[in-house]
């Protein structure tokens, strides 16, 4: 663990320890474990060698063709998901809302098969509905829209404040970009340069995982994170792609206010 500008670049000690623990339980072939037969090759029984000789290469099969619509409680098909998103995300809702980058239209979070009501469970003609969830950055609302896939009608809209589901990939990458552009991200860029010898100019040079942050969680923070929870705020776990971890856990990115703060 090397202490650097932003905090610390984790040199993979934890990963190495995990890998070692896993490797202990792996039975090595004779040549790797140092046990060889009299001829100098790997040591094994005739039955084992015969079985290896009979093994055929794996065959990759095409996925079964997916229909346009599912039945019963089958997962939503690609066509059903696209249709649900089109039916719920357009019209006045699109014009009056904003996504994580401030563009017209809400930030779509998920599209799932809706649960049945108590009187619909087991019914042969139970409706097939989809729930599409959005985050509207214009007024920090979590919106769930339900659409009947048979009729094509939106049957319900639920709007909540202060509900913060996990961020999607676009939100996480935008948080990383905001951190990189902020003066508090200078340490991240210096650590990336130390680890790779290259300049950090794009979020996709990092593997990033984001978690929702609410005011009062963990260490007390500055007043600038006091709105987190009402605002959409995230903390990031970052690493060089296929490389070292860079500690950015003390940084809180307020996606609603588009500001970065550091916890105490």
- The parts where pLDDT drops under 50 for at least 5 residues are 1-44
Shape: globular
Q: Kindly report the average pLDDT value.
A: 82
Largest sheet: 7 strands, antiparallel
CATH topology of one domain: Nuclear Transport Factor 2, Chain: A
CA-atom Rg in angstroms: 26 Å
CATH architecture descriptor of one domain: Roll
What percent of residues are in strands?
Answer: 15-25%
Count all strands and give the number: 11
- Structural class call reads alpha+beta
- Count of DSSP H/I helices: 7
Order of helices and strands: EEHHHHHEEEEHHEEEEE
Helix fraction, binned, reads 25-40%
Q: Kindly provide the name of the CATH class of one domain.
A: Alpha Beta
Kindly report how far apart the N and C termini lie: 21 Å
Keywords: Signal
Protein name: Tat pathway signal sequence domain protein
Q: How would you characterize this protein structure?
A:
With 264 residues, the chain is α+β, with helices and mostly antiparallel strands. Among the domains are: 78-161, Nuclear Transport Factor 2, Chain: A, CATH 3.10.450; 169-262, Nuclear Transport Factor 2, Chain: A (Roll), CATH 3.10.450. Helices cover 25% and strands 23% of the residues. The chain has seven helices and eleven strands. It has helices spanning 13-24, 30-33, 46-54, 78-89, 91-96, 169-181, 186-196; strands at residues 2-3, 8-10, 107-113, 129-136, 141-148, 153-160, 206-212, 233-240, 245-246, 251-254, 259-262. The strands form two sheets. Strands 1, 2, 7, 8, 9, 10 and 11 form a seven-stranded antiparallel β-sheet that branches. Strand 8 (233-240) and strand 9 (245-246) form a beta hairpin. The chain starts with a strand and ends with a strand.
């Amino acid at each position: 663990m090397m202490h650097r500008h932003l905090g610390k670049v984790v040199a993979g000690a934890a990963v190495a320890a995990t890998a070692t623990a896993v490797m202990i339980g792996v039975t090595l072939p004779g040549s790797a474990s140092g046990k060889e037969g009299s001829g100098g090759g790997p040591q094994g029984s005739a039955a084992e060698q015969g079985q290896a000789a009979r093994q055929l290469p794996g065959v990759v099969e095409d996925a079964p063709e997916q229909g346009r619509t599912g039945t019963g409680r089958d997962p939503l098909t690609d066509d059903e998901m696209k249709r649900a998103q089109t039916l719920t995300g357009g019209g006045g809702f699109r014009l009056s809302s904003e996504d994580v980058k401030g563009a017209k239209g809400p930030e779509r979070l998920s599209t799932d098969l809706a649960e049945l009501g108590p009187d619909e469970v087991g019914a042969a003609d139970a409706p097939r509905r989809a729930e599409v969830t959005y985050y509207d950055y214009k007024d920090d609302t979590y919106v769930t829209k339900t659409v009947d896939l048979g009729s094509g009608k939106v049957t319900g809209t639920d709007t909540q404040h202060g509900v913060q589901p996990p961020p999607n990939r676009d939100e996480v990458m935008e948080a990383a970009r905001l951190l990189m552009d902020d003066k508090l991200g200078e340490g991240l860029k210096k650590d990336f340069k130390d680890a790779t010898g290259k300049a950090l100019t794009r979020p996709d040079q990092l593997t990033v995982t984001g978690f929702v942050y609410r005011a009062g969680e963990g260490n007390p923070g500055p007043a600038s994170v006091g709105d987190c929870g009402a605002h959409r705020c995230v903390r990031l776990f970052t690493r060089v792609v296929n490389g070292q971890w860079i500690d950015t856990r003390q940084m809180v990115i307020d996606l609603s206010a588009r500001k970065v703060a550091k916890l105490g």
